[in-house]
Amino acid sequence: MINYFKVLRPGINSTFQDLGRFGLQHLGIAASGCMDKSLFVITNKLVENKISEGALEFAYQGPLLELVGETILATVSGKVNYNIINKKGEIKQGISNESFIVSNGDKIDILSTINSVYGYFSISGGFKLKETQGSVSTLVRAKIGPNNGDKLKIDEKIFFNKPNIDLKTKKFEFDFDNENTIRVMQGLQFDYFSKKSQEDFFSKEYQVTRLTDRMGMRLEGQKLENKTNKNISSEGITKGSIQIPGDGQPIILLSDHPTIGGYPKIANVITADYDKLVQKTPGSKLKFKLVDLGVAESAFTDYIKKINFF
């Protein structure tokens, strides 16, 4: 039997992702990968996949999918409102972060995320996805990855591997960190900014704008004054870099960031706070806290322990 999901509604920015495609930044290709690593790992553990197995990531509204094929174990992770609709049309409200059984003809309707941005859908055994340079992450701007490097589209088919139906359902208790303080380290051009702007950056609130996607998050707040040079020679940049362009408003570079840039960087988000950051919806208020390398490394150790605990 050929197993697949028919896409009845693609949702918003639904793409296949894994942990990322590394080692290609020198060629201008970002690592990409899942936006929220904690949730991504939970998704795969709930259906007993390896934690690097490719999953379907969606933003705000997810897809409406109809199963054609064998019974499978599936899960939707995050803070998500979704329904399971059986072939008789009976509707059951889904529970996030808990695996469930789906049978031939059933539909999964992922309606929306709740006070968050990203969620994940995965199945036991994984989807049939072609790797590019050792990864199934989709980088839409470069047309790299599964589904011809593009988002899901209506009427497409998502094929998957032969399911293991002997698995038991399981669940995890999980909630987002609602703290609005994001820890950062000094950026390479921190000293380009006036003392007042340095103080403002760590004392004032910034608001997440609607100009936010997998590439970057634009903020709005106290204008930062660059006393040296508003542009620099292009240099390598990383996920979490906080650039300050000519208008003085911060841009945080996210998973699909460009690999080089010419705006001064005042700070860089630490890895342990990245998942929390990307789940902040437009209108959310953020504050930044300066930490040193020792604190960042300790926080990273705790972050990895938390992920491994799930």
Describe what you observe in this structure.
The chain has 310 residues and is α+β, with helices and mostly antiparallel strands. It folds into 2 domains: 4-159, Jelly Rolls; 181-309, Cyclophilin-like (Cyclophilin, Beta Barrel), CATH 2.40.100. Helix content is 15%, strand content 30%. The protein is built from 5 helices and 20 strands. The longest helix is centred in the C-terminal third of the chain and has 17 residues, at 293-309. The chain starts with a strand and ends with a helix. The mean pLDDT is 94.
Characteristic key phrases:
alpha+beta; six-stranded antiparallel beta sheet; 310 residues; 5 helices; seven-stranded mixed β-barrel; 15% helix; Jelly Rolls; 2 domains; Cyclophilin
Give the secondary structure arrangement, pairings included:
Elements: E1 4-9, E2 15-17, H1 37-46, E3 55-59, E4 64-68, E5 72-77, E6 80-85, E7 91-93, E8 100-102, E9 107-113, E10 118-123, H2 146-149, E11 157-159, E12 181-186, H3 195-203, E13 206-212, E14 216-220, E15 235-236, E16 241-243, E17 251-253, E18 260-261, E19 265-269, H4 274-278, E20 285-290, H5 293-309
Oligomeric state of this protein: single chain
Order of helices and strands: EEHEEEEEEEEHEEHEEEEEEEHEH
- Alpha-beta classification: alpha+beta
- N-to-C span: 33 Å
Counting DSSP H or I runs of 4 or more residues, the number of helices is: 5
